[in-house]
Amino acid sequence: MSSSVSVANENGIAVVTIDNPPVNALSFHVRKPLYEALAALRDDPAASAIVIACAGRTFVAGADITEFGKPLQQPELRAIIALLETIAKPTVAAIHGTALGGGLELALGCHFRVADRSAKLGLPEVKLGLLPGGGGTVRLPRLVGAAKALGMIVSGTPVSAGEAKAAGFVDAVFDGDLLAQAIRFANEMVAQGGPFVPVRDRNDRLAATDLAAFDAQAAELARKARGLEAPLACAEAVRNAITLPFDEALAAERQLFLKLVSGDQSRAQRHLFFAEREAAKLPGKDLQRRRIERIGVIGAGTMGGGIAMAFANGGLPVTLLETSEEALRRGLATIDKNYAVSVSRGSLTDEAKQKRLGLFKGSTDYADLADCDLIIEAVFEDMAVKKEVFGKLDAIARPGAILATNTSYLDVDAIAASTSRPQDVLGMHFFSPANVMKLLEIVRAEKTAPEVLATVADLARRIGKVAVVVGVCHGFVGNRMLSARGAENEALLLEGAAPDEVDKAFTDFGWPMGPFQMGDLAGLDIGWRNRKARGQTAVIADTLCEQGHFGQKTRRGWYRYESGSREPLSDSEVEALIRAKAAELGIPRREIGADEVIERTLYPLVNEGAKILEEGIAARASDIDVVWVNGYGFPIGKGGPMFWAGLEGAGRIVERLEHWHGRTGRAIFEPAPALRRFAETGAWES
Ligand code: T1G
User: Fold this and answer.
1) Ligand 1 pocket check for 54: Cβ under 6 Å
2) What is the mean pLDDT of the chain?
3) Does the C-beta of 596 come closer than 6 Å to ligand 1?
4) Residue 34: closest CA among 50, 21, 58
5) For a surface tag, which of 202, 262, 287, 627 has the fewest beta carbons within 10 Å of its beta carbon?
6) Residue 284: its pLDDT value, please?
């Protein structure tokens, strides 16, 4: 027997144990011995039933994603499941941890599934730009019905063992010794006697399907797909389960899978899966982590309150400091309201809300931060204010406490230098709303100690954030590249594009919204304040702000908004303003197509990323992709700006940047050497 699969006989019940750390992925070196073991046990009279279990922290978490794109080695998962369904004796999957993708599909090949109460089960393939390719789109609907299966498969969201039992694809939920209870369950099934019907032959839940309702549900999901192919393929495969005989539906699933797995979108999404995990890895695995048990947050405004919630959501006690009792009360009231909204939406129980609120302690006295292990400030974005705060922290924080700034732009080295402990200082740049957005830029200052970085990277994971370590420069990685992406926005308007034409070029590309809609959402006054602080101007945006048109919050900005609506409506006065400014500046207007919009916004975005790589502000190109997908909504089907540059053709990007550089002379269009090298070699890193 191989080291990845072992077989034991527990008084007549065969127990097949898969052991392939870290997540028991169904790699080839698991599939082959697993197939052989099941084939032998099928006809083994000494085995009256078969239990499939896993060693380690989880049941099979899926096919081995690293094998995709390589020649398939038999036996494939579908052959194992087909073999399972020829076994007449009871087969039981004993599930703990996360039974995901091919792992759940393997379990669906068994007659029965039993699970530890804390287990989660799901088919997340859609998040990799795929669909369940091991029969999940044909078997799951047979147990839970087509509508429930469609929702699970298109969302890719796992469910708890209890939910799975209620839905009909787990037969028993256990506490305590899962294997012992799975063996007992198998014995009970043997005692009950067969025949034991394989899932493929269970059609009762399918027969009741309302196809019209299913199609309406699928159409609504398709509307939200935003150009992604996998959700549509998932819906088609589940529909086939309803309308086609099992084997035809299974064959159709295979064809849909093969098309997706070789496509750019799945390659992009699989790139992001590994990129997120790579970004979180820091040199020096054996670095000592510092103890983090209590968090201090300075500032209870939008950012501070959101950051405080992010830590409380991770179960950490928070001391929230404000300058006055009134400001503190307002901040805590906002936090309470935010949790109340989650409860009303059903995404949080009232009990959990009370538990989280119980983690907060309010104060207006810095001395109350003395017992905190990490203190982060989210005060006004002004260097003098930040330095004053860090001077106070230096005086009261316990030795070894980590001191973090949430600055979006400012020089973290300068902030660190305002303390006697620069080795304990770094940036933690959260994205608003901080309790929702996944991205956390961890800003490594020149003197930040390695174990401080490692401690904060672990802490980020603990609170469910996707962390990327970045270096110090104006705007770090995300905001610096955002400036490059937006540098041409007004020029495009003055030269002839309307705001909604630019935004449509972005949404057609796959962005959730374009830059002008985003500006109206965030508030034009934020950019206005930043520009004034840096002595910069934007002829159109500044005029809108001078008119008090800040976007949605004033119901006028780049667009008009009806009362109570977020729907952007073209504003003839804005278009007249643009024309007037163009005339004032003597800028001739012309038709501007979507391609030009992309070339003058997203190509500079990639180019700035290349410069960031050259300067060492980002450790790897894939880190930049992680920043842009998790912090700014870069379409996942394109893998992030640096991955997309490969899809778009770096040679073309260089050539078009040179064209616009020649035409405008603007630096954002001058191709970075790293981009030229990428165009020549196809690799960002040497
Ligand atoms: N294949 C290969 N490696 C995997 C893997 C997988 N399926 N899942 C995780 N890893 C690696 C990961 O890269 C990391 O490696 C280590 O395991 C720990 O992962 C036919 C086609 C299970 C919830 O999509 O969601 O089945 O960085 O850091 O936070 O229909 O891993 O240590 O070198 O994420 O505790 C479907 C993907 C596959 C599940 C655990 N399954 N994995 O989270 O650890 S496609 C998935 C996860 C499929 C079938 C289809 C998570 C996790 P390293 P980790 P974690």
Assistant:
1) no
2) 95
3) no
4) 50
5) 262
6) 67
Q: Whose CA is nearest to atom 52 of ligand 1?
A: 61
Q: Is the pTM of this model over 0.90?
A: yes
**Which atom from ligand 1 is nearest to the alpha carbon of 68?**
21
What pLDDT, in 10s, does the model give residues 368-427? 999 999 999 999 888 999 999 999 999 999 999 999 999 988 999 999 999 999 999 999
CA geometry: angle 174, 176, 182, nearest 5 deg: 50
- In order of 42, 80, 128, 143, the CA distances from 154 in angstroms are 34, 25, 11, 17
pLDDT band at 287 (very low <50, low <70, confident <90, very high): confident
Average pLDDT over residues 614-636: 96
Q: Are 133 and 101 in contact (CB under 8 A)?
A: no
pLDDT in tens, 543-581: 999 999 999 999 999 999 998 899 999 999 999 999 999
- pLDDT tens track for 429-488: 999 899 999 999 999 999 999 999 999 999 999 999 999 999 999 889 999 999 999 999
CA distance 512 to 566: 14
Buried b (16+ CB within 10 A) or exposed e, 481-502: bbbbbbbbbbebbbbbbbbbbb
Pair of tokens at residue 386: 């930040």
Residue to substitute in 4, 20, 23, 73 for testing ligand 1 pocket (most ligand atoms within 8 angstroms of CB): 23
Locate the ligand 1 atom nearest the alpha carbon of residue 274 and give its number: 13
- Catalytic-labelled residue, pool 76, 105, 599, 608: 105
Percentage of the chain modeled with pLDDT above 70:
99
Separation of alpha carbons 320 and 312, rounded Å? 11
User: Annotated catalytic, 10?
Assistant: no
- Ligand 1 proximity of 234 Cβ (cutoff 6 Å): no
Alpha helices (H) in 145-209, listed in sequence order:
146-155, 161-167, 178-192, 204-207
- The percent helix, strand, coil of the chain (3-state, each to 5) is 55, 10, 35
What single-letter amino acid sits at 643?
F
CB atoms within 10 A of CB 267: 20
Pinpoint the alpha helices (H) of 300-429. Answer: 302-313, 325-345, 350-357, 383-396, 412-416
> pLDDT tens for residues 190-237?
999 989 999 999 988 898 889 999 999 999 998 888 899 999 999 999
Query: Can you list the positions of beta strands (E) in 77-213?
Result: 91-95, 98-100, 112-116, 120-122, 159-160, 172-174
Establish whether this prediction's ipTM goes over 0.95.
Answer: yes
Q: Is 680 a catalytic residue?
A: no
Rounded Cα distance, 238 and 243, in Å: 9
Q: Is 277 in the pocket of ligand 1 (CB under 6 A)?
A: yes
By alpha-carbon position, which residue is closest to atom 22 of ligand 1?
Answer: 61
Map tokens 């080795």 to a residue.
Answer: 423
Contact in structure between 604 and 664 (CB atoms under 8 Å): no
The number of beta carbons lying within 10 Å of the beta carbon of residue 304 is 25
* Cα–ligand 1 centroid distance for 181 (angstroms): 27
DSSP designation for 290? P
Residue appearing with tokens 């694809």: 169
